Every structure is written in C-alpha cells, then in structure tokens.
C-alpha cells in the first residue's frame, strides 16, 4: 500500500536529507509552524511506512586513509536481480548495491578497497556469483543533495498552508497548519462560524493535533499548530483558508 505524503511529510524528509545529524524536531517544527510533537509523530509514521529507511553518515574514503571507491556496472538475469543484489551486498568492501528496473547494466555495485588489489578481489567475488561486470570506474567525487521537490515552495500564500489534494471528482482537499495569529486560533468552530470567521460552506474533515486525530465538532476549539484538513466547497480558496492563516503574513 502506498503511503500518501503531504506537504509536512515532504518538508520533514527534505530537512532530514539535508542534514539529519544537526536537525532536530523543534527546528523542523519552527519552519513548518507545527509542534515538535507533530514532527516526531510524523517521523515515526514515515519510518513505519518504510519511507525513511535509516540515517547514515556520508564518508570520504579517499581522506580516510587514501582508500579507493569503485563503481561496477553489472548485468544479471532479471529473475535473479534481488537475490544477486543481496549476495553482492554481503561481499566485504561493498557499501552500496542498486537494482535497476530493466535492460543491461541492471545492477550497480559500489565498493571500497585499500588499493587496486582489493578492488580486483571484489570484482572476482562478484564474478563468482555469476554477476557479469560490464564496466568499472573509479569514483572521484559523489555529490548529494536533498530532493528539491520536497523542499519549501515559492508560493504566493503564506508558508502555513501545507498541501492540496484533488479527488477524482475534482474536489479540492486542503491541509493547512493553523498559525499562532490566525483569526480562528483559540475559538470553537461554532463561535467561528457564528461570527463569520469560518464560512458555513467550509467542511472540516479532521484536525491533527500533536500526532492525534481530533474529529471536528461545534465545541472543538482550534489551536495554533493544529493541522486542519478541509474542503472549501463553494467558497473561494483564499477565503476558506484565511481563518487559519496569519493575516499579516502575506503583507
């Protein structure tokens, strides 16, 4: 089953890809205008879903004793890809194995050795597994960066707006983080509708608060940092979201 990531999830993943070691839940929360508890719960869910699979250090092996890093581009039978990938991973010196979808060179193996003799031994071990090495190259530099599509967007609305999903029938569903200075913050839904802060046509589906889901009722008080899922229905989107955003943020 595919896990549907919203904007908060994507921004969390982007921050962790950028620098997981020096990034804390409160730091991410500040940038998203949600609570640190919400960020921690989201990270737990992303780990459970297998999206965040671990946290590793990026090593410069050349500086670590002048070691050599080699990329082996290999071809294996399609039916054997997964098995041979696991077998290749078990070879001493292999640090990464990538399985491609189809075609030749469908297995890429990255390995580290003290010298060319070590790398030749790794190549021999791969061949003994019936992995055909098509080519091999020494890796000079590897540059990593977070996935840009998961990063902050340059949009006209304020950063508290967190996501949009369009259903099959064209209905737009928004997720929005409630700003501290939002008109609705601290008010019940009933009071917000009565004084016109929240248009009657706006349908609230759920409220996420510190990782818990709160079902909206008339007596429910909306709090800063809540993540609200809503359908604007017959109301202009900006008007529907205005109750949850900082009125000064767009000025």
From TrEMBL:
Coiled coil residues, start to end: none
Key word Endoplasmic reticulum present: no
Keyword vocabulary terms for this entry: DNA-binding, Transcription, Transcription regulation
InterPro entries reported in the protein's UniProt record: ArsR-like_HTH, AsnC-type_HTH_dom, RCK_C, RCK_C_sf, Tscrpt_reg_AsnC-like, WH-like_DNA-bd_sf, WH_DNA-bd_sf
One GO process term, biological-process aspect: potassium ion transport
HTH asnC-type domain boundaries: 5-68
PROSITE patterns linked: HTH_ASNC_2 (PS50956), RCK_C (PS51202)
Residue span, RCK C-terminal domain: 161-247
Molecular functions per Gene Ontology: monoatomic cation transmembrane transporter activity; sequence-specific DNA binding
A GO term from the CC aspect: cytosol
Protein name, UniProt field: DNA-binding transcriptional regulator, Lrp family
């Amino acid at each position: 089953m595919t896990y549907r990531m919203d904007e908060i999830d994507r921004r969390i993943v982007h921050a962790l890809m950028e620098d997981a070691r020096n990034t804390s839940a409160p730091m991410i929360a500040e940038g998203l205008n949600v609570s640190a508890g919400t960020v921690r719960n989201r990270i737990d869910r992303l780990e459970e879903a297998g999206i965040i699979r671990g946290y590793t250090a990026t090593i410069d092996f050349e500086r670590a004793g002048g070691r050599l890093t080699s990329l082996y581009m290999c071809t294996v039978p399609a039916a054997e890809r997964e098995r041979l990938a696991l077998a290749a991973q078990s070879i001493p010196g292999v640090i990464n194995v990538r399985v491609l979808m189809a075609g030749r060179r469908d297995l890429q193996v990255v390995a580290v050795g003290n010298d060319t003799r070590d790398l030749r031994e790794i190549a021999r071990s791969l061949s003994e597994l019936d992995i055909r090495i098509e080519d091999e190259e020494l890796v000079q530099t590897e540059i990593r960066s977070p996935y840009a599509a998961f990063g902050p967007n340059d949009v006209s609305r304020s950063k508290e707006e967190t996501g949009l999903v369009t259903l099959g029938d064209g209905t737009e569903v928004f997720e929005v983080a409630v700003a501290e200075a939002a008109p609705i913050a601290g008010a019940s839904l009933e009071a917000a509708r009565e004084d016109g802060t929240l248009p009657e046509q706006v349908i609230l589906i759920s409220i996420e608060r510190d990782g818990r889901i709160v079902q909206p009722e008339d007596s429910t008080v909306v709090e800063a940092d809540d993540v609200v899922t809503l359908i604007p229905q017959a109301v202009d989107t900006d008007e529907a979201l205005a109750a949850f955003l900082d009125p000064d943020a767009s000025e």
